[in-house]
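Issue: ligand-bound run for uridine-diphosphate-N-acetylglucosamine - logging full I/O for the record.

Environment: standard queue, default settings, no custom constraints.

Inputs:
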Amino acid sequence: MLSVAILAAGKGTRMESSLPKVLHKISGKSLLQRVIDSCVELKPDQIFIITGHKSNEVQKSIPNDKKIHFVIQEPQSGTGHAIQVLCREVKNHEGKLLVLNGDVPLIRPNTLKRLLYLHDSKNADVSLITTKKTNPHGYGRVFFKGDFIERIVEDKDCNSLERENPLINAGVYCFNWSNLSAIINTLQSNNKQKEIYLTDTVSLLKNSLGLEVEDNGELQGINNRIQLSECEESIQNLIKEKHMLNGVTFINKASCSISEEAEIGKDVIIEANTHIRGNTKIKSHCIIGPNTFIENSNVGLNCEISNSTVYASEIIDSIKIGPYSHIRPNSKISSFSKIGNFVEIKNSQLEEGSKVNHLSYIGDSIIGSSTNIGAGTITANFDGQKKHQTKIGKNSSIGANTVFVAPINLGESVTTGAGSVITKDSKDNSLAISRTKQVNIENWERKKS
Ligand code: UD1
Ligand code: MG
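Outputs:
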């Protein structure tokens, strides 16, 4: 039987934040969610999340799962106290208890498996992960006597000699749960922080083992925003390396961010300051950026998107977007189309080869294939209460500065006069024009005042 306890009750004082520490995100996912995800592969029988500070907020952030149970620790008197509360609330202490700090989010499932293997094969009371850090500041230092861990001394409690020890406690432990519960209530709080430390259990248990792993970033604990940003960088480096090995070029990789879920095809070039978020798929031979933000969207083959923002939309193949375009949710831009500078498209469908090149707002519209929308054209889609649709048929030519007062339905091959305000539907092959004729008054002089 394998149970997991995730320690997530602390406030995270050093984050200087109103948000509980474990709800801070790296690459779009909270620290706590990452820790939960890291142990799912181990197929635990039950997962206990110890919450306390803003426990409602923390609980709400986690999707319902039959295996996940919340235990409230109030007040938060230290990591050892958190496990005392767990041992009191849960009666059955059978099997192994894997304890994970909620602020060590990059731990890999494989490292956890190695820890469980060591624990089982040596029949340990506690096995924990250690690593040597060049800068161990802030971490508990691990001291061995022979093959066993003798004690862990928290950074704040170390004397100057102890502080030199580079071997740190990563905050990842596997306990024999019944042996742990036999000693858990004997923990004391006679230390600098007046807290009950879980780390003191190693001195009370007999068979305390360490698994030393290489410090490759996965054991980074997050106590402040500097460490948060270091973890973000570690994840981003891994993601970008994966894409580079798959044939994606980054022109200035440090300035770009890519979500873990993103899929990017071969020979895509990601220019500087480009951010690919959420569930976005980009097919081969695209040039994305510079200065581009794409979220939850699909981009087809051979597209070029520069200095633009795209949300929740479908961009089919061979399309040019930008600079300075804003594609809002639920838009579909079909192949060979062009969206130019200062153009906003929302909830609209553009058929093949249509062009909206300059300074337009196209909302709630369907634009037929090979239609050209002149500069400055606007769909007036909102009557103050409701949004209405604009439909423009294929092969149409919309004059510059046309305003469509929706709902409006234009046939195919329609032309509108520049500067027209279109309020009535028009049929195929017609010219729609609505503006006063120009009057030229000759020999006109401005009144002298
Ligand atoms: C802890 C370890 C330290 C280790 C480091 C690794 C202890 C005493 N120290 O120190 O040896 O090197 O992690 O990152 O355990 N929490 C609770 N209830 C509490 C207090 C904390 O649930 O009463 C939770 C926090 O929300 C956090 C985790 O426990 O997720 C660790 O607490 P934190 O205060 O960050 O401990 P560290 O000082 O980092
Ligand atoms: Mg910590």
